[in-house]
Known about the structure:
Number of helices: 1
Oligomer: single chain
Number of strands: 28
Mean pLDDT: 92
Shape: globular
Largest sheet: 4 strands, antiparallel
Amino acid sequence: xxxxxxxxxxxxxxxxxxxxxxxxxxxxxxxxxxxxxxxxxxxxxxxxxxxxxxxxxxxxxxxxxxxxxxxxxxxxxxxxxxxxxxxxxxxxxxxxxxxxxxxxxxxxxxxxxxxxxxxxxxxxxxxxxxxxxxxxxxxxxxxxxxxxxxxxxxxxxxxxxxxxxxxxxxxxxxxxxxxxxxxxxxxxxxxxxxxxxxxxxxxxxxxxxxxxxxxxxxxxxxxxxxxxxxxxxxxxxxxxxxxxxxxxxxxxxxxxxxxxxxxxxxxxxxxxxxxxxxxxxxxxxxxxxxxxxxxxxxxxxxxxxxxxxxxxxxxxxxxxxxxxxxxxxxxxxxx
Length: 335
């Protein structure tokens, strides 16, 4: 083989290697922040592409993503945790963990429609599964899930799980998955029969919190706080494909299907960004510096921006500094 051909082949292999290693992968940085009133605790956020819903103690802020300005507040709530959106039914749902009620609001106007009392303790994560048109309420304090028919807003089932259910996601094909931070398992729930179809062990990973899914490749991404790990799992078999190190205090995780990125929000003050090279191969590409306490995350697929909520702490304490709550927006430098 001629020297020229060897050189061309070497160059080609180098290009392929650099692309594979993510040489063109955009790094994330802080773009801006959105200040929001109130000094309560925060938990889940929810996004519909046009508006951002932010849980905040006794209220949910609604932010217009075109202007990054708050446009409404849903108030009179009691220990807000999760937010579910049923855009096709023009409704939204909020879990109130203090009194175990569900606030139903009008999706368009954000006005409260009704309050539903549900059985259990510490209503936490909530998931609207459009495939079944059912709402799943996960009670972190009583180890069960309450199921509501989102068309009628009537309770239609109860699923005993044990432990402490956390984040949930759907495969849009009849299965809802839920992380359990006490049993260190992922539960697969049949949305038709309302029974537990799968129980996948995350061991030796512990304290599972955030969970999301790559539907196209049938992969679950579970983050575990105690072991500081991201677990990639086959959603059909429960086989652990890969385990990666992440930051401390993790709570949430998102998957950007276009950029093939998994981002974990770590409460210690950073976000771990992982690239999906293939369904079975993953690698950490960036540790993004955020702020302590920013542990909940959502993302906007159109812009590839991620949103984290939080407030400042008084120097040397874990006491919140008044008037500092807001949402921080991070995105690729190319944006």
